[in-house]
Design goal:
This protein is an alpha+beta fold and 295 residues long. 25% of the residues lie in helices and 21% in strands. The protein is built from 7 helices and 8 strands, in the order H-E-E-E-H-E-E-H-E-E-E-H-H-H-H. Strands 1, 2, 3, 4, 5, 6, 7 and 8 form an 8-stranded antiparallel β-sheet that branches. The longest helix is centred in the N-terminal third of the chain and has 23 residues.
Length: 295
């Protein structure tokens, strides 16, 4: 090998390493279902899914995972908040976020919730090969609010008390569209209570197969699956060292709607912040009680 060949090898191996690392970071968890967009520009999709109960060794049909998604100078940081594992966990990002009054908080640090559950895909019009399969789903707040509303619906014929029940639950019609540049779920609806399959003896095996196909959920909230306090503190130091080349001409109490994914219009959020004159006293100890993420 000549010195020129060695230098060329150094260059190519470095490029290949960066490329491989980028692909690894973007690797998708194939267990999770996502709406299949029929039009990427308008973010339109349609599907019918059915939340199903947890596996026999677990007792929660849904787990709530809190995460942070930080962007600075075109670099992205995504991680599960240590508080997901319980109130004993501490998070330097949350500490920094809650340390300031409501209107002055850095929305780039805002913790966000997602409700992780098992679903059975009844009809995915954009990707029919998903039909009849079980997936994990990170339910957005907009749809979760609809599930909660159906649970306490005042009209009995429209009430779905346990949407995860294979006989007494309900399908969800998922409709997405573009809103302010993000995928919006507000047109999704909870359908009437019904059995997943016709209640016939020959369908008993179908029910058992669906139930046994559910994924474990505990891994998403277990302690040890999140970064440590010191690791996150080191990451925040790295982020602080980056030069933010974005130009922000908004007032200090302006909530950046680019971080609001589902249901908030810019005018409503700005009006809400403008009307807030008192400091919101939110301590680390009552994090989960007071947290009402805008997603």
């Amino acid at each position: 090998m000549t010195i020129e060949e060695l230098k060329e090898h150094q260059k190519k191996s470095a490029e290949a390493t960066v490329s491989a690392a980028a692909k690894q970071e973007k690797k998708k968890d194939e267990r999770f279902w996502e709406p299949t967009l029929t039009d990427k520009d308008t973010k339109v999709s349609r599907a019918i899914i059915r939340p199903i109960s947890c596996i026999a060794t677990e007792d929660q049909n849904v787990v709530v995972q809190t995460s942070h998604f930080i962007k600075k100078n075109n670099r992205y940081y995504s991680f599960v908040c240590p508080k997901t594992a319980g109130k004993g966990g501490k998070c330097p990002v949350c500490e920094r976020y809650w340390a300031k009054p409501f209107g002055q908080r850095d929305q780039n640090l805002r913790p966000r919730k997602k409700w992780i559950m098992n679903i059975y895909v009844v009809d995915d019009s954009g990707k029919p090969e998903n039909n009849g399969k079980t997936f994990l789903w990170a339910c957005p707040k907009t749809v979760w609010d609809k599930i909660e509303a159906a649970r306490v619906e005042q009209y009995e014929d429209e009430r779905v008390e346990n949407i995860f029940d294979l006989w007494e639950g309900a399908n969800i019609l998922i409709r997405t569209k573009d809103k302010a540049g993000f995928m919006n779920y507000e047109d999704s609806t909870i359908r009437s209570k019904s059995a997943l399959f016709p209640d016939l003896p020959e369908n008993d095996l179908k029910y058992i197969k669906v139930a046994e196909s559910a994924y474990a959920l505990k891994e998403f909230i277990e302690a040890g699956n999140q970064k440590s306090y010191s690791e996150l503190a080191e990451m925040m130091n790295e982020i602080d060292g980056l030069v933010d080349d974005s130009i922000d001409t908004k007032p200090s109490n302006y909530v950046k709607t680019q971080r609001l994914e589902d249901e908030e219009d810019e005018e409503e959020v700005v009006a809400e912040v403008a009307a807030t004159t008192q400091v919101e006293e939110t301590t680390d100890a009552d994090f989960f009680d007071d947290l009402e993420p805008i997603e």
